[in-house]
Write a structure and sequence with these properties.
Chain B: Its cofactor is [3Fe-4S] cluster; [2Fe-2S] cluster. Chain B: This is Succinate dehydrogenase / fumarate reductase iron-sulfur subunit. Chain B: GO terms for molecular function: 2 iron, 2 sulfur cluster binding; electron transfer activity; metal ion binding. Chain B: Keywords: Iron, Iron-sulfur, Metal-binding. Chain B: InterPro entries: 2Fe-2S_ferredoxin-like_sf (IPR036010), 2Fe2S_fd_BS (IPR006058), 4Fe4S_Fe-S-bd (IPR017896), 4Fe4S_Fe_S_CS (IPR017900), Beta-grasp_dom_sf (IPR012675), Helical_ferredxn (IPR009051), SDH/FRD_Iron-Sulfur (IPR050573), Succ_DH/fum_Rdtase_N (IPR025192). The complex is a heterodimer of chains A (about 650) and B (about 250). With about 650 residues, chain A is of the alpha+beta class. Chain A starts with 9 loop residues before the first strand and ends in a 14-residue tail after the last strand. In chain A, the strands form 7 sheets. In chain A, strands 1-25-22-12-20 form a 5-stranded mixed beta sheet. In chain A, strands 7-3-2-11-21 form a 5-stranded parallel beta sheet. A 5-stranded antiparallel beta sheet of chain A has the order 13-19-18-14-15. In chain A, a hairpin with a 2-residue loop joins strand 8 and strand 9. Among the domains of chain A are: about 140 residues, Succinate dehydrogenase/fumarate reductase flavoprotein, catalytic domain (Flavocytochrome C3, Chain A, domain 1, Alpha-Beta Complex); about 130 residues, Up-down Bundle (Methane Monooxygenase Hydroxylase, Chain G, domain 1), CATH 1.20.58. Helix content of chain A is about 35%, strand content about 15%. With about 250 residues, chain B is α+β, with helices and mostly antiparallel strands. Chain B has 2 domains: about 110 residues, Beta-grasp domain (Ubiquitin-like (UB roll)), CATH 3.10.20; about 130 residues, Orthogonal Bundle (Fumarate Reductase Iron-sulfur Protein, Chain B, domain 2), CATH 1.10.1060.10. Helix content of chain B is about 35%, strand content about 10%. Chain B is built from 8 helices and 7 strands, in the order E-E-H-E-E-E-E-E-H-H-H-H-H-H-H. In chain B, strands 2-1-5-3-4 form a 5-stranded mixed beta sheet. Chain B has a two-stranded antiparallel sheet with strand order 6-7. In chain B, helix 5 packs antiparallel against helix 6 and helix 6 crosses helix 8. The chains are: A alpha+beta (about 650), B alpha+beta (about 250). Chains A and B meet through helix 3, helix 5, helix 6, helix 11 and helix 12 of A and helix 1, helix 2 and helix 3 of B.
Chain lengths: ~650, ~250
């Protein structure tokens, strides 16, 4: 065992993806599909797969594997698969169709995504993503997804942050909803056909590992409280991201890390946990009671102009009374080539900078104004109100409903908020984790977005994984099955059940003074303050201490009422917050060890003279994959860091500049 | 604001339920209705009482998970979801009743939560286009007139919350069905299964104990996504057409 570094972690052996084929990058996926073993249709009926999560990745994978003839069990904590949080994605989905003949190509989508991810994603995976992007659009259109169309009846496109071509397909401001409904319907079709069994209001609480392979899960029926054992030949986690570790985020209330964290504790490495995307266009926080933050689609930046007053004295004025010459369109000023369409990390940090400079707008929360204007008055004089309504109407309505102000009349106010997590379970080219037979898809894995996710690429990745990648890679694993049946009373199964039961009983028996939510909010404050938009060595060390003592208090003083054998929402939340309390510490350790700025990770100690993020490719061009190393009393023992060197053969590492 | 809440409490599907009164104070008008319930629940836990169980998830008005009859109206006095209903819609001193959706097809689960899986089974009966992954033609080979695309989109905005059923005196699910029938029926992709779809979905609708439609329009009035009532006309038209074509 290596020595303790920074008193926090140990260094383990390097790790590498060994499954991607060699050769020209444009041939690799084709080669992989050919090299992967086939399973003949008669044998597929003998094989079973568990899929946790029914968002874009989970439902599309369930539909596709069901169509292929495997037995699929699908799990979600909501009352219907259609409610998964992919449904709230608004802006659009990228594809390299080049319908506008504006110079787009698979290679350019690949290039933009690697650059946009600040050179911390894997070339092979990203190229494949760009390659299958076009098939996604075909598939969704065939399912009846009502994408926007022009008057000629063809598909319409718009552009998104970080790119200079219009490659984003959209369905007004509800692209995620329409894509998810498409995947959900495809999955329900398989439910009717009997190939997919859907378990709703079920929460996965443990992975069953037998002889080193993932063979099933323990799930709690959230209505009856019954702990169920489900066994299969392979397990797929498509359970989304962990942004709710910050309490306030754009995630749905139920989004949690439990599925991936339980897998991590069973041996799956967790990669780049500190990469959190802070989305620049959210409605600012209004008060302490607030339960979540609402995202305004990034597509608004196509026509809205972002500004703050040049003078601090103007911050309280009605924005319509501030003349043009007294406005600072700071993104257009600093980044003339990209203007308001700079990538999310840059737009977010610049918003923070101008607010830190005392030029924020909107109501004071504490002693600080957190808001910048997103102004449509130029667009309204250029286009009709009807044209604006056609493009953004539902977003404007949503904004007005929440704030009580009309964006047609007064500029919107926006501020960055936690949105998407680029980290997740470490997977190889086949999307297999370090536990054989355990796969991770969509936001639950780490590989495609690097340190920053470009707009309209999450929907693309989730559907790419679910419809096209996973069904082709898991086949290679399933071809060696069916695996030896696991008995319902095998020691590994009984142990997993006992662990879950013990944990639930413990949470119910503490009967302390504090509610689960109060712990969650406190954790969120710590994470936002010290592991949010800007991180420092000192702050992160402080956060680790704070989280450790908060976790200690949680297990001594949390109050969870009721019992485990009924619907008990406090108990559900308590289990999730307990996992967030462990993940939060790992995020801070990961952030602390990465002494560079890149993408969604901005280290104050690592910046250029003009305040831009400064990467350190010499030392940090790797994926940080963390291994769980057992439990000490009160929390996890020092985790072990395995580095996967990122090798760029096709794209040259460059300082990322949008100026 | 200070308010008096009268909330339906029911321990389980077969338990006897009753209305329980809770006063709440210091409610900000910027809170959503669900955040107001969060505040109530925090205070109940502190007092050692079990919190009120209710459904919610995205809290952005899009997932369709939240429900609640508020003062007898589905999602309350505004045409929106409960998560997007703000306390500025109420006045200081108001008494507000909060109940679960009521419909034979939506059996109670606990407190304000009901089981809406009947809607999933209606979709399973035919609310899709049958196309296996990988079998799709190039997207732009299929042209859709903009008016059709827009009409399909308007119908496709249904979030499956069940407010239409809860608002209907007959607890009919016809607006939900009509929305799906219209969405897929407006598009060329949906044509080959059009006749079979409407028959299968209607049969499932009836099997789930949803009531009959008398065209009262309460459903469309309560729909947070403003699905137009005429999707039910479309449904009826498609149904009649399916009978003719079967002859």
């Amino acid at each position: 065992m290596s020595e303790l570094i920074d008193d926090l972690y140990r260094l383990g052996d390097p790790i590498a993806d060994t499954k991607a084929p060699d050769g020209p990058i444009e041939n690799r996926w084709t080669k992989a599909k050919f090299d992967n073993k086939l399973v003949n249709p008669a044998n597929r009926r003998k094989l079973s797969v568990i899929i946790v999560g029914t968002g874009l990745a989970g439902s599309s994978a369930a539909a596709t594997l069901g169509e292929a003839g495997y037995h699929v069990k699908s799990f979600c904590y909501q009352d219907s698969p259609r409610r998964a949080h992919s449904i709230a994605a608004q802006g659009g989905i990228n594809a390299a169709k080049n319908y506008n003949d504006d110079g787009d190509s698979v290679y350019r989508l690949f290039y933009d995504t690697v650059k946009g991810g600040d050179y911390r994603s894997r070339e092979n995976n990203v190229y494949r993503l760009a390659e299958v992007s076009n098939s996604i659009i075909d598939q969704c259109v065939a399912q009846g997804v009502p994408f926007a169309r022009d008057y000629g009846g063809l598909l319409d496109n718009r552009s998104f942050g970080g790119v200079q071509v219009a490659r984003t397909f959209y369905a007004r401001g509800q692209t995620g909803q329409q894509l998810l409904i498409g995947a959900y319907q495809a999955m329900e079709r398989q439910v009717a056909a009997g190939t997919v069994t859907a378990y709703t209001r079920h929460e996965m609480l443990e992975v069953i590992v037998v002889d080193g392979r993932a063979r099933g899960i323990i799930a709690r029926d959230m209505v009856t409280g019954e702990l169920e054992t489900h066994l299969a030949d392979a397990v797929v986690l498509a359970s989304g991201g962990y942004g709710n570790v910050f309490f306030l985020s754009t995630n749905a209330m139920g989004c949690n890390v439990t599925a991936t964290w339980r897998a991590h504790r069973k041996g799956a490495y967790f990669a780049n946990p500190c990469y959190t995307q802070i989305h620049p266009t959210c409605i600012p926080v209004a008060g302490d009671y607030q339960s979540k933050l609402t995202l305004m689609s990034e597509s608004l930046r196509n026509d809205g102009r972002i500004w703050v007053p040049k003078n601090r004295d103007d911050c309280e004025k009605d924005p319509r009374q501030i003349p043009e010459e007294d406005r600072d369109y700071y993104l257009e000023r600093i980044y003339p080539a990209f203007g308001n369409l700079v990538p999310r990390d840059i737009a977010s940090r610049q918003a923070k900078n101008v607010c830190d400079d005392g030029r924020g707008v909107g109501p004071k929360v504490g002693d600080f104004r957190r808001g910048v204007y997103l102004d449509f008055s130029d667009a309204l004089s250029r286009m009709s109100e009807a044209a604006i309504a056609e493009k953004y109407g539902n977003l404007f309505d949503m904004y007005q409903r929440i704030t009580g102000e009309s964006p047609y009349e007064v500029p919107m106010r926006i501020y960055p908020a936690v949105h998407y997590t680029m980290g997740g379970l470490w997977v190889d080219y086949d999307l297999e984790t370090t536990i054989p037979g355990l796969y991770a898809a969509g936001e639950a894995n780490f590989s495609d977005h690097g340190a920053n996710r470009l707009g309209a690429s999450s929907l693309m990745q989730c559907l790419a994984d679910g419809y096209f990648v996973l069904p082709n890679t898991i086949r290679n694993y399933l071809a060696s099955g069916p695996y030896e049946p696991v008995a319902e009373d095998a020691p590994e199964v009984l142990q997993a059940q006992a662990d879950v039961r013990e944990r639930l009983d413990k949470l119910l028996s503490i009967n302390g003074d504090r509610t689960v939510d109060s712990f969650h909010k406190e954790l969120g404050h710590i994470m936002w303050e010290y592991c949010g938009m800007e991180r420092t060595e000192e702050g992160l060390r402080k956060a680790i201490d704070l989280i450790r003592s908060l976790r200690e208090e949680f297990w001594r003083n949390v109050r969870v009422l009721g019992s485990a054998d009924t619907l008990n929402q406090s108990l559900e939340k308590a289990g999730r917050v307990a996992d967030f309390l462990e993940l939060g510490e790992l995020m801070c350790i990961d952030a602390l060890h990465r002494r560079e700025s890149c993408g969604g990770h901005f280290r104050a100690e690592s910046q250029t003279e003009d305040g831009e993020a400064l990467r350190d490719d010499e030392k940090f061009a790797y994926v940080g994959a963390w291994q769980f190393s057992g439990n000490e009393a009160g929390g996890p023992d020092a985790p072990i860091l395995h580095k996967e060197d990122l090798v760029y053969n096709f794209i040259q590492l460059k300082q990322r500049s949008y100026k | 604001m200070n308010l008096t809440l009268q909330i339906w409490r029911q321990d389980g599907p077969n338990a006897q339920g009753s209305m329980v009164t809770y006063p709440v104070s210091d409610i900000s008008e910027d809170m959503s209705f669900l955040e107001m319930l969060d505040v109530l629940n925090e205070s109940l836990i502190e007092k050692g009482e079990e919190p009120v169980a209710f459904d919610s998830d995205c809290r952005e008005g899009i997932c369709g998970m939240c429900s609640l009859m508020i003062n007898g109206q589905a999602h309350g006095p505004e045409v929106t979801t409960t998560c997007q209903l703000h306390m500025r819609s109420f006045s200081d001193g108001d008494t507000i009743t909060v109940e679960p959706w009521r419909a034979a097809a939506f059996p109670p689960v606990r407190d304000l939560i009901v089981d809406r899986s009947a809607l999933d089974r209606v979709i399973q009966a035919g609310g899709y286009v049958s196309v296996n992954t990988g079998a799709a033609p190039e997207a732009n080979n299929l042209q859709v007139r903009k008016p059709s695309a827009d009409r399909a989109f308007d119908a496709a905005t249904c979030i499956g919350c069940g407010a239409c059923v809860a608002a209907c005196p007959n607890a009919s699910g016809m607006l939900f069905l009509g929305a799906k029938i219209t969405h897929l029926g407006e598009l060329p992709q949906g044509q080959s299964q059009r006749s079979a779809r409407v028959v299968k979905m209607l049969n499932q609708h009836d099997a789930e104990d949803f009531g009959g439609c008398q065209n009262l329009g309460e459903c469309a009035a309560a729909c947070p996504k403003e699905i137009p009532l005429d999707v039910i006309n479309q449904l009826n038209q498609d149904f009649l057409h399916s009978k003719k074509s079967a002859r």
